[in-house]
Amino acid sequence: MTPGLVDGHTHFGMWALNRRRVHLAGCRTREEAVTRVAAGGLEGGWVLGQGWDANGWKARPERGVLDVVHPGPVFLESLDVHAAWVNSAALRVAGIDRHTPDPYGGVIVRDPSGEPTGLLLERAVELMSPHLPVPPQARLLKAIRDAQSLAHQLGVTGIHDVEGLDALRAFETLRQEGALKLRVLFHPPVAELPRLIEQEWRSGEGDPWITKGGIKLFLDGSLGSRTAWMLKPFEGTSDRGMPITTLEVARAAIQTAAGAGISSTIHAIGDAAVRRALDLLEEAPRVGIPHRIEHFQCVHPDDLVRAGQAGIPVSMQPAHLLTDIPLIDRHWGVRGFGAYHFKTIAEAGNTVVFGSDVPVASIDPRDGIRAALDRDSADGSARMWRRNERITLGHALSAYTRGPAFAGGVLHRRGTVVPGMDADLVAWEVDPAAERGGEGAGAVFASGRCVLTVVAGEVVHSA
User: Fold this and answer.
1) How does DSSP classify residue 449?
2) SS3 for 218?
3) Which 3-state string (H, E, C) describes 371-436?
C-alpha cells in the first residue's frame, strides 16, 4: 500500500474530451495520420484531433493533404500541444492568410510564396481558439466522469490541473453533485488574472476537493516543436527557440498576482527559460502556496540548486523521457546531460513533483515510474540512458505523493500513510518495498496492477 498518487501536471478536461476525438498519437507517417482524420467524426462542424508528432515523418504537416479528406475545418493539436495542424477551411474561418502577422511568441509557418502551410506554432495556435466549437457542459461533465474512473483504476487520487475556467466549473459542478472523487489543485491561465483578482482568488484556499492554485504563465515552447528557449542554439542551427512572454510582461504578471495572494506556475523547458523562471520567482513575494516551475527540463549546471534554495518546487514529467531521448541527443547534444536530471535535482535539495502532462503522455503513473527508474526509450533505441540519473522507487513514489502535497500546501494532510492523514490510499500487486532498485525495477513495478484505490476513505476502484 502507498499513499494515493497525485498527477502533478494535467490538462484533465482536455484529455477527457480528446478521448472522444481523432487520436493521432503513434502515427508513424503523415499518411497514417491523414487516414485517421478521414475517419473522424464532426464536432460542431469541425474535425478535432490531438497527438500527432512529425519528428519522425518524412513529410511535414500541411493543409493540402487535409483539404483532400475534409472540406470543412480541421484542427489537430500536436502531441506536445505547442503546435496545430489545420486545413484551408480552418484558416479561412480564422481569417489567417499571407497578410496575417506572426503574433509575439508564435509563428505562422509559410511556404516560399508567403502562404500559410497549415502549421501554427506556439501563440499562433491562439489565433484559432475563438473559432473552435465549445463543447456543451453536459459533454464535458460526462467526459470528466469517465476519465476520473480511469484515473482511479491507475491509482491516481489527485491532480494538479492546468487549463481554462470551463474545466474548473465542471469540477465544481461534480463536487456539488457529490460526484467529484479526485483532489484537484487548479491552476488557471494568466489571462484570467484580472478576473481572479476581482473574485478575490487566493492560492491555497478551497475545500477538501478543490484548492485554488497559481496562474499559469508560459516562458517558452517545447523540445518537440523546437520552440524551447535555449541559452545556445539547437545543434547544427542558429535557432535558440523562442521566448513566449517578454520579461516585462512576465514580471508584471507575477508581481501583480503575488500582491493579490496568487502564486505563479511557470512553464519553462529550455535552459534560458528555466534561468528566467528562477530569476523571476526568486524575487517574487511568497504567498499561500509555493510558486513553482513546470517541466524544468533542460537546466544549466549553474542553476540546478537554485530552486531548492528558494523553496520552489519543480514539476517534471518523467514519462516524456520515453519519447524525448532521441530528440535530446539530436537537438541538445551534450547539453542533454542537463535534461531529466532526476537524481541530481533531488539530491540538490529540490522538491520534485512528478506528473504526466496528459494528454501529452499517459496519465498512468507506472509509465513515469518506469521512465524514472529504468530510463529506457520507448522505441528501444536506448537503454539505461544516462543511468547515473536514475532514482529509486522510493524517490519516484515520493515525487507522486509528498512532492505534490508540499506544492499544494497540504503536506500536513496528504502524502504519507499515518494516522490522522486523509485516507487517500492505493494498493498494488507489486510490493514497492521489494522493488527498490536494480536494473529493470521500474518495469517490474509497472507490470503490476493497481488493485484498490481509496479516496477520502471511500473505495473508488477495486480489481
Assistant:
1) P
2) strand
3) HHHHCCCCCCCCCCCCHHHCCCHHHHHHHHCHHHHHHCCCCCCCCCCCCCCCCCEEEECCCHHHCC
According to DSSP, the residues that pair with 450 across neighbouring strands are 428
Peptide bond connecting 359 to the previous residue in cis, omega within 30 degrees of 0: yes
Rounded-to-integer distance, Cα 373 and Cα 391, Å: 5
Work out whether strand 458-462 and strand 450-455 pair parallel, antiparallel, or are unpaired. Answer: antiparallel
Q: Specify the pTM.
A: 0.93
Cβ contacts of 453 within 8 Å, gap of 6 or more: 4, 152, 153, 155, 156, 157, 425, 426, 459, 460, 461, 462
Three-state DSSP at 117 gives strand
All three cell numbers of 460, joined, read: 473508488
| Amino acid occupying residue 423 | A
Q: How far is CA 295 from CA 25, 118, 330, in A?
A: 21, 28, 19
Which amino acid, residue 450? C
Tell me the per-residue pLDDT of 80-127, one tens digit each, with 9 for 90 and over.
Answer: 999 999 999 999 999 999 999 999 999 999 999 999 999 999 999 999
Tell me the CA distances in angstroms from 58 to 13, 19, 31, 53, 55, one per residue in order.
32, 27, 10, 12, 9
Q: How many CB atoms lie under 10 A from the CB of residue 318?
A: 27
> What element of type H or E holds 238?
none
Dist CA 96 CA 91 (whole Å): 5
Residue 336 is given by DSSP the state G
Which residues are bridge partners to 293 per DSSP? 266, 314
CA atoms within 13 A on the CB side of 376: 14
The distance from CA 356 to its chain's CA centroid, rounded to whole angstroms, is: 6
Pair 146, 16: CB distance under 8 Å: yes
Kindly state the DSSP code that residue 220 receives in the 8-state scheme. -
Cα maximum dimension of the chain: 68
Give the pLDDT mean for 171-185: 98
Nearest to 54 by CA among 74, 36, 73, 31: 31
Contacts of 278 (CB under 8 A, 6+ apart): 293, 303, 306, 307, 310, 312
Secondary structure of residue 79 in the 3-state scheme = coil
Tell me the C-alpha distance between 395 and 280, whole Å.
28
Q: Is the Cβ–Cβ distance between 123 and 105 less than 8 Å?
A: yes
Measure the CA–CA gap between 440 and 324, rounded to whole angstroms: 19
Contacts of 367 (CB under 8 A, 6+ apart): 319, 322, 356, 361, 446
**94 close to 75: Cβ distance less than 8 angstroms:** no
- CA distance readout (Å), 218 to 192, 285, 292, 414: 14, 19, 12, 29
Q: What is the pLDDT of residues 16-59, one digit of tens each?
A: 999 989 999 999 999 999 999 999 999 999 999 999 999 989 99
